[in-house]
Automatic annotation (TrEMBL):
<dbReference type="InterPro" id="IPR010985">
    <property type="entry name" value="Ribbon_hlx_hlx"/>
</dbReference>
<protein>
    <submittedName>
        <fullName>Transcriptional regulator</fullName>
    </submittedName>
</protein>
<dbReference type="InterPro" id="IPR052991">
    <property type="entry name" value="Non-func_TypeII_TA_Antitoxin"/>
</dbReference>
Length: 86
């Protein structure tokens, strides 16, 4: 089992009740479900931030596509998909 630590958070009574119902219905502890939710949220947010940082680095390095060129590629992809769907 991985090491863990304790953290206290404040939630609304409504959220606490919903978490309790979910825990009961899934036969998991509220602590387990809360930790899973925090893990998923933090992982997703870090991925977003890292993607933004990569994008900013691309801009800084000049690795960009002009808007008109990007829209032309998108329009061509949509047209190709519509043609294939017909």
């Amino acid at each position: 089992m991985a090491a863990s630590t304790t953290m206290t958070i404040r939630v609304t009574p409504d959220l606490k009740e919903k978490l309790g119902r979910l825990a009961h219905n899934t036969r998991r502890t509220k602590s387990y479900l809360a930790a899973e939710a925090v893990e998923a949220y933090v992982t997703r947010e870090l991925q977003i931030i890292e993607g933004i940082e990569r994008g900013l680095a691309d801009v800084e390095a000049g690795r960009v596509t002009p808007h008109d060129a990007a829209m032309d590629r998108i329009d061509a992809a949509i047209a190709a998909a519509a043609k294939n769907a017909a």
